[in-house]
Every structure is written in structure tokens, then in C-alpha cells.
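[job 0412] stage=fold_complex status=start
inputs:
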Amino acid sequence: MQALLEVDHLTKIFTLGSMVSRVRITAVDNVSFHIKPAEIFALAGESGCGKSTTARIILGFEQPTSGAIVHKGKRDAQSKNKQVWFTEGIQAIFQDPFGTFNPLRTVDRYFFETIHSYKLAKNKAEAIERIDQKLKAVGLSYEEFAGRYPSEFSGGQLQRISIARALLTDPILMIADEPVSMVDASLRMSIVNLFKKLKDDFGVSVLYITHDLATAYYVSDRIAIMFRGNIVEEGSVEQVLMAPKHPYTKLLRESIPEIDPNLRWSQAVTLSDTEQEEYLRTGCKFAGRCPQVMNICKNVVPEDVYIDGVLVKCHLWTESGITPSIPVPMRKEPVD
Amino acid sequence: MNRLMIRTEQLKAFYVLDVHGDQTVVKAVNDVNLEIRENEVYGIAGESGCGKTTLLKALYGAVDPPLRLVGGKVYYFVDDQPLDITTLSAEEKRRLRWEYVSYVPQGSMSVFNPVIKLKETYRDFIASHVSGKTREEAFEIAKGHLKDLGLPVKILDAYPHQLSGGMRQRITIALAALLKPRMIICDEPTTALDVVVQRGVVQMLRDIQANLKNSIILVTHDMGVQANVADRIAIMYAGKIVEEATTETIFGNPVHPYTRYLIHSLPRFGDKTTRESAPGNPPSLSDLPSGCPFHPRCPFVLEICKQQMPGTYKLDHNQKVACWLVEERQDASSS
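[job 0412] stage=fold_complex status=done
writing structure:
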């Protein structure tokens, strides 16, 4: 099975400061992953871990410093804006549903515009039929939506409208950057369930970018945990979230408040002083806060190793660290 | 039972907007009765636009136009004497603030003056509330206070922008606890923070409460944080408290259909069964449906729900529910 989208050793370096005092921040550091057809892949991490930058590079809003995006066997196609075939297959949904739409335009104009730009219908009747069909897929209809302004909808409805708009081109992959973080709690699951439905009914893959590990666990098949520009752990959600191997994933997982008053936190937690310090760290970037830190962690960047199909970037799991109870196979995961 | 700290009676706070003679009334707090006692964390949960923040403003006595107190009373119990704060003058309220009650508003990590060092903020603060302290004494108080809370003392020499959001949030909360107030009102203290930082802030709130044995009113929509901190939780919907109970009861035995949706829609680790959101959308506070505001979304809607707002029914374990279904059930069991 060929990967739908491959992110190949992507690196993005931002330069901060003036000519004299330059700081180079590696926002995305040698990140590789792939998304298979009909799967929900979550890219999770805290703010400033580089997950949104990765999404912006995939969508062609930023140019990578090095590395490439491979789609349908073509490299870096997204950076040339004229390549309609790329955006036709890959559509995006953003965090703020209120910011997605211009408040002075009716929402249906966005739909007609998309249909026009991608030449998806021959006449207006056909266009309306297509719009109605996509709106039905997200639980809305053309009648309740035509001619209305964004302010007449709730956040949850607007987010569903933007998903319907993305569906117009029959995409095979949706890039969803924090799609539920601004939606009310009581409506959040309806959006998340929609992604599941799109995957099951239409075979649409989703790159679900989020900081919310609980919904990531609920909806995704595979997950990658990012920390300060690196993917530190990647594998199936069951393996990564239910039995985390990397100390950072463990910390993250333990820091999610349990929805159960009997499972309150009992241990204290150390917080990072500043974000920049961690970005500039040589060696493992988590070394400053890691409870299991070793000398090697402070100087040497850990290799990626695969353990039971889970990628881990940590010295504890490489041969140089504490030997795990099971022998570590030093091999690259075969790309299927 | 612990001493009463604050009580409201039929509190109604509406935003009255007048645009070219077109009057809109936003019923943000509509008939709220609550009692909060000493040494408890009282959580208020609900989705955005349900009136949580407005309720806090009314509790704090910060009612400024277009917000108007339409009816009801808010009592503080200073030295066990009820004191109706809706009748107090600005100066009398100012004297209560920070010593009896302090308020950490939403987005409070941006409250610091960006051009002065934090020790100057601390000094300003101490000078305006504690008389007869020199600069050095104020500085000593600040240092000791930060040390007690496990925050680094060196931050006093920093400008606000040099610190992370989580650190600034913790300093704001520390500042609010400086004069050992009997009550701290926190509005979404952990929203917009990362999970690990959020955990640090929650940890600090719990420490402060354990030390001062005061009460904390905690507003957050994050049910995980509520589960971790609150002793009792009130669920707000469309300006009303629809259910109030101990944290264990709210999570273990929610009764109101809205609370049930809210609790059961939360994704949990190790459980991938389908979660359903409540159908429909939250109502607009300026155009509430008749009767119970949840009735258009409620799967168990009765005829009476469409016409009349239910009263509050008391169940076992101090659980209070505003729902007609409870009356039905009670009738059935008594007859």
C-alpha cells in the first residue's frame, strides 16, 4: 500500500533577532512520517512543538529549510501554487471557525467560489446539488444555510460548514489544525465523530493536529508526539498513549487530568523555565526536565529506534542507555 | 458544617444593550441561588456563553454597564455578619477586595504592567493595601511569599515578557493570595495553557487552598480540571445553575440530561466507544426558549418543560437539580 502523503526529513529553521544577536530556532527538526489511505493520523504536542509549522509546510504556506513533502509520488508539489491537483486532493480545516469566514460575506459564496475555481459543476443547479450533498454529510442542509452570514451560526456549525467546504473537491486527505479547540464542549464530539464518519464512509484520511490527547486517543489510528521540533514517539494510539515509552510522552499523558475525582494528581511536576532554552539545547531536548536523565542525554541527540513497531527517540531505549528488558532491534520500519 | 462565605438569592444580572432604540436584554445570570462555605473549592462549569464569567463579576461586585443587576442579593459573611455587597459603595468594596475576596480574571497572564519589573508590581500592590510598609519591607514580604509557594525569587527582577505564560499565570494567582483572602475567585485560570503547565497551576491552587483553608471559586469549562480540584461543582446552562452536587456525585451520578451529556461525551483513555454530543446548539442568551432553556435539545422533553422553568429539587447527598424529570420521578416513588 502506497502512503498517501509522506513527510520526508522535514526541517524548518527560523532566525530570530537582529544582525548582531541571531538565534536560530529549529522549529521542525528532521521530521518524517507518512499517512496511509483511510486513516486518522494525530500529530500531538504542546504549543510551540512545531506541529502547526509542519502543517503549514505541508499546505505550502511555508517553505521548508530542507526536506520534502511527497504526494502521489511527486516531491514538493505543494509549493507551486498553480498545482491545482494538490489542493484538490488535500484540503485544510483551521482552528478558529469565526476567523475562517469573512463576517461580511454570506457563507454560501465560499462554496460557489470553490466550485468555480475547481470547475466542479456545469451550472448552478448542479452546484447546489453538490453543496447540498456535502452539507448533508456534516448534518446540515442547503436550505438552512443559503444566504446567511457567519454570525448567524454557532462555532460548532461554522466548523462543520468549513468541513463541508473542504469536502467539495472530494479530497483524499484533510489537514485539520486544532479543529475542536474553539468549539464548545457539548458540541466537540460531534465534530470529532464527523472525522470518524468521513474516514469510514468516504475513506478520507485526516491529519489531526491537536494538543488534546484524549480526543486524539478517541479518534485516531496512529499518533506522533512532537516535542520542541522532534517526533519523540510514534506508533498506534493504543501503544503510544496506553503504554508510553518516552519519558516526555509519559509526562504528557500523566498531566491530562483524569475525568474521575478519585484519580487526582498526587505527584508534583517540574515546569520548563523558558521555551527557547529547550530549543537551543544540544542532545535530547527533554534532558532538562527528564526524571530519568543520563549524562549522554545532555550531549548526544538520541537515534530513532523501533520497538514493537513504535518509534522512540530516547537514549533509554537505545543500546547506549539502560538496556530495556527486551532486545532492541536497530532497524528502520519497512515502508509498506 | 463550615462557615458560610457567600450566598446569593435569586441573583439576576442582565446585559441591557440599547442600539438606536432597539433594546436587547442578554440574560447572562438568571435566578442563581448558591451558597459557598469555608474551606471548599466550588467549581462552576459550563460551555462558553452560558454566563459563568458574568456570574463571577456579580459575585465580586464588579457590575458595570452594560451589565446590570436586575434583581437578587449577594451576601458576603465578613466576621459571620451578612453584608449585602450590592448596596456597598465603591470605597467599601475596595476595602473588602484582596483581603476578603480576590479575583483572578480570565487571561490574567497579561495583567502585569509590561514596562516595570515584577517587584515594582508587588510593591505597588502591597503599598495600596497594607499601610506603613517601606520599600524594603514590601520586598521582603514578596520574597517570603514566593518562596512559600515554591516559585523562584529571581522572577522579581524580571519583566513580565521574560517569563512564560504558565509562570505569569502562577504569579498572578500568587499575587491574589498575598493578603490571605478568605475567598479567591478564579476565572479559567488554566485555559490557554499547555497540559503540563496546567498541572503546575492546578497544583499551586490546591496548595494555596490547603494552606489558607479558604474557599476558591473556580470557573473552568475543562471537566478534567474540575474533577481534579473541585469539592463541589455547579453546572451552568443558559444563565442558570441546572445541577449542583459534590464532585463525586456529578461525575458518578449526574441527573440533569445536560450534565449527563456533558459527562458522558468526555473521551477517556482506554475506552474507544462512541461518544455523543448533545444534539442541537446552545441557545442565545438574548433569545431564550420558553420554559426550561435546555428543552429544545433534551431527548426526554415533556410538555411542561416547554412552558415552565422547573424549580430546584433536592436529592440525597446535597444534590440539587433543576429538571421536571426529577419531579416526575419523585411523584412516582411517593404515590
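[job 0412] summary: Chain B touches chain A through 43 residues (CB under 8 Å).
[job 0412] exit 0
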